[in-house]
Amino acid sequence: MKPRPERGTRRGAARPDAAPATAGAARRPLGGGRGTPPAKVRIIGGQWKRTPLAVADLPGLRPTPDRVRETLFNWLGQDLTGWRCLDLYAGSGALGFEAASRGAARVVLVEREPRAADALRAVKARLGAAQVEVVQGDAFAWLARSGEQFDLVFLDPPFDGAELARVMPRLAAVLAPGGALYVESATALSPDAPPLSALPGLQAHRANKAGHVHYHLLLLPNRPPGA
Fold it and tell me: Minimal CA–CA distance to 87: which of 141, 153, 170?
């Protein structure tokens, strides 16, 4: 893989509609948030642009909407060639397959629900996405045994639990210096407050809201503070 350019060269100009992140706790009741999930979502850009992805009918599964993903990948700079990406709560796979479509060299999709994991494998086979690995299992357990580092980590856990608080401390060994972390939550979050503060050094880069969902892009400096 070619060396990654400095993160500042891949983000583009600040968007005027981006709202600053503020502190809060990531929780929502079952059935809240985005409402009834769609039967399908689509890949927004890259080699598989407009490809539909079926959404399994599973409790709590709320795929990231098309327009939110479009905003996120605008923030990221569109081209993810050579990036290593991890989606710890893959669900429909919309985030991970979007990254692969835009050139990511490796994408790991971790999904606990067997039916959702089977659907992800079916999409991988249909697209011929050799760079995508589907792992059926618990996100926390997978992090505990993983020795890899990633340039971009997606976190879109269920809003009705404490998954962010569980996994954030583990990300220190997984998110590469200079890497990016994308988080969805029921409330606005700040890197200076729990649960995000469990990963020291995170910096807020962009944040916005769509309906009841707050979404954040955070960066980890290339060097630890004070180094």
Answer: 153
**Positive/negative CA dihedral, 29, 34, 36, 41:** negative
Which residues constitute the domain of residue 150? 23-219
Statement: residue 153 has pLDDT above 60: yes
* Locus of tokens 């809060």: 24
Is residue 136 assigned to a domain? Answer: yes
Residue 171: inside a domain, yes or no? yes
pTM for the full predicted model? 0.81
- Reference 164, options 196, 190, 135, 138; nearest CA is 196
For residue 25, the model assigns a pLDDT of: 31
> H-helix or E-strand containing 39?
none
DSSP state of 181: E
Q: In what order do the strands lie in the sheet with 132-136?
A: 132-136, 106-111, 84-87, 150-155, 175-185, 213-219, 203-210
Q: Domain count of the chain? A: 1
| Residues 6-54: tens digit of each pLDDT | 443 333 333 334 333 333 333 333 233 345 555 788 999 999 999 998 8
β-pair type (203-210, 213-219): antiparallel
Please state the separation of Cα 140 from the chain's center in Å.
15
In a domain, 53, yes or no: yes
* Per-residue confidence (pLDDT) for residue 202, from 0 to 100: 96
Residue 8 lies in a domain: no
Tell me how far apart the terminal alpha carbons of the chain are, to the nearest angstrom.
27
Confidence at residue 37, expressed as pLDDT on a 0 to 100 scale: 54
CATH number of the domain residue 163 falls in: 3.40.50.150
CA distance 2 to 171: 23
